[in-house]
Amino acid sequence: MRKAFVSIMVILAVGQFSSCKKGAAAQKDVTVQEDSVAKQMLQGIWVDEDEQDVAFKAQGDSIFYPDSTSMPVRFQIIADTLVLHGASDVKYPILKQTRHLFVFRNQNGDEIRLVLSDDADDANFFSDKHPQPLNQGKLIKRDTIVSFQNKSYHCYIQINPTTYKVIKSSWNDEGVEVDNVYYDNIINLNVYSGARRLYHSDIKKQQFSSVVPADFLRQSIFSDLDLKSVDADGIHFQASLVMPDETMSSYQVMVTVAYNGRMSMKIKK
């Protein structure tokens, strides 16, 4: 409809078209205009109206959560809607807002009522808070010798913490989606047969993409690699890819290093 309207206006008068174009652009700007007054009213620490549990702190353009694993998120208030720009944009209808009361509807359709905190101790929830990694930056080394058919194999595993972030979305007590940050591992595996190096690799979780679903792999931690057995097919290790949430669901993948130095993997049955 707008295209047809613009086309007619171009035919009738270039000047009128320019005017309408500017008007349409101005109208679009108004539509997406952020409510700076509402944003200013949201500044501060907000707590649950009934339980007085700390929900979040709004400071500047960001919302901070008391949970040490939850990342701060950029927010806007547009047309009576709270918009959180996290791993994905999430919108919450605002039902009522004053300087001391904030009422909105969460993703489950529940009405959430928050009040502005007047307790100075609530600031301690946000003092020098940084997202904490699941592995806590711990370096783990394992050194094991196994034998098969009178031959010894020296297996060396080193779990190296990294700064590679894994973002896992979840919902807090208010039914608001938050992004939790964890840090992944790279695991170094060396297998020697006497002085000959049979296998060497820095294994990353992306290498499991052929056996682990992409959505799970993206949000999981490559948490462990453990020697399990040795037989005619080779030396078998178990890799653990864990979802860093309350379920701690995981995929266990059997990684086999054959005697010709080739590595293969399959889901543990």
Question: What report would you give on this structure?
Answer:
With 269 residues, this protein is of the alpha+beta class. It folds into 2 domains: 36-126, Lipocalin (Beta Barrel); 140-267, Beta Barrel (Lipocalin). It contains 4 helices and 16 strands. It has helices spanning 2-12, 14-31, 36-41, 214-219; strands at 44-48, 54-59, 62-64, 73-77, 81-85, 89-97, 101-105, 111-116, 140-148, 151-171, 177-193, 196-203, 221-231, 234-242, 250-257, 263-267. The strands form 3 sheets. The chain has an 8-stranded antiparallel barrel. It has a 4-stranded antiparallel beta sheet with strand order 9-10-11-12, with no helix packed on it. Strands 13-14-15-16 form a 4-stranded antiparallel beta sheet, with no helix packed on it. The chain is elongated.
CATH class of the largest domain: Mainly Beta
Sequence of strands across the biggest β-sheet: 1-2-3-4-5-6-7-8
Rounded Rg: 27 Å
Beta-strand content: over 45%
**CATH architecture classification of the largest domain:** Beta Barrel
